[in-house]
Amino acid sequence: MEFKLSEVAERLRELRDILEIPLSEMAAVTGVTEEQYRAIEAGENDFSFTFLYKCAQRLGVDMTDLLTGEGPRLEGCSLIRSGEGMPIERREGFSYFNLAYLFKHRQAEPFLVTAPYREEEQDRPIALSSHDTQEMDYILSGQLKFTYNGRIEVLRPGDTVYYDARKPHGMIAVGGEPCKFLAIVIRDDGERR
User: Fold this and answer.
1) Domain end point (choices 68, 98, 123)
2) Backbone angles phi, psi at 114, to 5 degrees
3) 131 and 40 in a common domain
């Protein structure tokens, strides 16, 4: 299931208009300038996973609604087979597969994530992001350099990190190969959809 940037941008603009949310408020909520937000809504600029997540929270919809134009419909149980899931590629090279996108009223967003190994990232500061959730990352293969609150750790297969994602955090693959991990983004109780 692929999605087009222009279609997501149109859904963002339409929902914001319907809910009568000022563009300035959405820019502030998502941490971008009004000019950047306007360009995203126009389909001229790409956006990050964190940006989309913050939009969905403020607009009161599921991320699946923004990405596909359709809301999740399953209740009780959802099965996603190996290699399936809703693909999301929002951070250069990172690939995310949402493993519960069909499940209605979910309290968490489980993703299978692959972080690419990039030689040019190894000696640079790691890009940081934050979102109003908690997160757990479980390493399946490869190695992940993870930074949180000034602390840096290298995670290997079987390692788990659980953290308050409201604080700046970031990660890159290290060790010469991509890192595959399970990321579970957990909403606060008041954010249940």
Assistant:
1) 68
2) -120, 120
3) no
Burial of 142 (C-beta count, 10 Å sphere; 0-12/13-18/19+)? buried
Spell out the residues 6+ positions from residue 111 whose beta carbon is closer than 8 angstroms to its own.
88, 96, 97, 98, 99, 182, 183, 184, 185
For residue 108, give its domain range: 86-191
Q: Check which CATH number belongs to the domain holding 26 and give it.
A: 1.10.260.40
Note the Cα 182 to chain centre separation in Å. 12
pTM of the model: 0.73
Helix (H) or strand (E) holding 49: helix 49-59
Rounded Cα gap, residues 120 and 136, in angstroms:
27
- Give the up-direction half-sphere exposure of residue 39: CA atoms within 13 A in the CB hemisphere: 9
CB 69 within 8 A of CB 94: no
Residue 56 lies in a domain: yes
Express each pLDDT in 37-78 by its tens digit.
999 898 888 777 778 888 988 998 887 888 877 777 777 788
My answer on whether 96 and 37 are in the same domain is no
